[in-house]
UniProtKB/TrEMBL annotation, chains A, B:
GO molecular function: DNA-binding transcription factor activity; transcription cis-regulatory region binding
Annotated signal peptide: none
Keyword Repressor recorded: yes
PANTHER family: HTH-TYPE TRANSCRIPTIONAL REPRESSOR PURR-RELATED (PTHR30146:SF148), LACI-RELATED TRANSCRIPTIONAL REPRESSOR (PTHR30146)
UniProt xrefs under PROSITE patterns: HTH_LACI_1, HTH_LACI_2
Protein name: LacI family transcriptional regulator
Amino acid sequence: MKQITIKDVAEAAGVSKATASRVLSGHPATSPEARKAVEAAAGRLGFRPNAQARSLRNTRTQTIGLLLPDVRNPFFGDLAHAVEQRARSFGYMTLFGNANENVEQQDEYIDVMLSQRVDGVIAAPQGDGGNLSQLLRSGVPVVFVDRVLDSIKVPSVSPDNSTGIHDAVKHLTARGHRRIGYIAGPQSTSTGRERLRSYKEALAATGADTDADLIFLGDFQAASGAEGARTLLDLANPPTALLAADSLMSIGAVGVCNERGIAIGTDLAFVAHDDIDAFTLINPPLTVIAHDIDAMGRLAVDMLMSVIGGGSPASHTIPGRLIVRGSTPEFEKERQS
Amino acid sequence: MKQITIKDVAEAAGVSKATASRVLSGHPATSPEARKAVEAAAGRLGFRPNAQARSLRNTRTQTIGLLLPDVRNPFFGDLAHAVEQRARSFGYMTLFGNANENVEQQDEYIDVMLSQRVDGVIAAPQGDGGNLSQLLRSGVPVVFVDRVLDSIKVPSVSPDNSTGIHDAVKHLTARGHRRIGYIAGPQSTSTGRERLRSYKEALAATGADTDADLIFLGDFQAASGAEGARTLLDLANPPTALLAADSLMSIGAVGVCNERGIAIGTDLAFVAHDDIDAFTLINPPLTVIAHDIDAMGRLAVDMLMSVIGGGSPASHTIPGRLIVRGSTPEFEKERQS
């Protein structure tokens, strides 16, 4: 098969070879129209940057970019800290970009990171990836962390989104719960999709109720957790246990329970995601599904260093672990019967 | 008075004018020795970059740098979000550096930001400022946020570290407390120093006990809050109320109370700093001293835009506000007497 060259891409896009080259190397001095035409042609023809294109980027800046979805989410704060500390041990500084759960903002950060000539990018990607494919074509090493994309294959380190949820549902049904409400993450993210799928599988496996109205689709932010708790608790036949797919939605949901005088542990069992400090301070402390965030951050950096060095590291999964605390005690009604 | 020129600095430092110029413009291709010699000479002679030096930096990158002390502290996560959103409204992207409460790490980020040619820097400075003076000499606009330095005068937006603490101590003494323990922030930061001074003034003003052993010096991180709570609660004559100078130390201290079965609100009054979501979920929710973080972030960006445009904006203070919640109820012993 003929190797697709930059010349082929330029002809298909109707631009000069120099323009195509600038777009494909991520040079900032290109028009949006040219970028669009060249990107489309490169995608259509299946253009892949070669080692020579990579070696053109011969100026090392000793910086990596870290693209996060939400700097206010404690999970990503901890992840940022882990990545930065590990990168520093390799002599790299980490510059963060906060995409704010917004693809357009992620795209702007990718432009900035390209023009700042970072040596590599660790990203927890948004939506369909946006400009991430441009980043890859420009030859910048990329590793995904926490989230993955079906459309873009790069080495990744992601949480096991199955075991912890299966264990949580098994734990709740063993405690007598049959109606387990679920506040899901956005279905545009792999973590949101995989966790919802695991919840459904676990319900089916344990014989718990599988009513569609036990599921509320949130967006990983606190307000949607509050809305989810209100919606689920207002059901004619409300759940006796709630499970939320991240820490911020858990915070929103617990706030609604407090407002309504619903005693967590006594009136309602609750399982949160992510083992953040604050969850152990709530009375009773929250049962959580946790992943080793430090390990995730360290591995992401190690893998990026491998890619920068020309390697092709295998992807990794970080196990999920159920930590049982006071928010999921024996179910009162069962004990009394 | 004769204007100090780059030539004067070069002669005093014993380097070429080109080297002095590179150092003073923040060019990355300089040796540590040259940087040290030129910095020292520039400081000794009182060299100040002029408008011409600034105009040499004529390539706008439309990025600003944000130097934060601790990305895991929810206060700074919220501040980062506020800065980034406001900067974006001016067409600027924000790159974060996490100094991790460490001057050396802050210095490395300053080097990175200089070589990345950011158009300005918003910093919550560490210790004595380290390379911050180099940043200023290179002509990069700088605004301080949250913390200030005695040694470096730039426009700043900082919290009022007096009113909230005075109100908290008045509130606690009105509730019958005379022994108010204080978990202080590091005295190398302006916030740590000013808050401790306010605590002492407030004790004197209200007539509460002023024993030196009621004060524990922490470092704004959770572990030191836990250690502080243990130390203060183990006193022969322990405090009946605790006040902590930031959110992370508050989290550490509340954790120790839970471990020991000390009921906050009933056995011990507690006042935290910063109005983070998690504090409203604790039962009883925590009384806090809060500042409007969004306003602080917005103002810092507005002031930096003014400096970038050649202005000299006045510094601002953001008022502190006591929000009374269940952790500081009427003092039982007083009610019973």
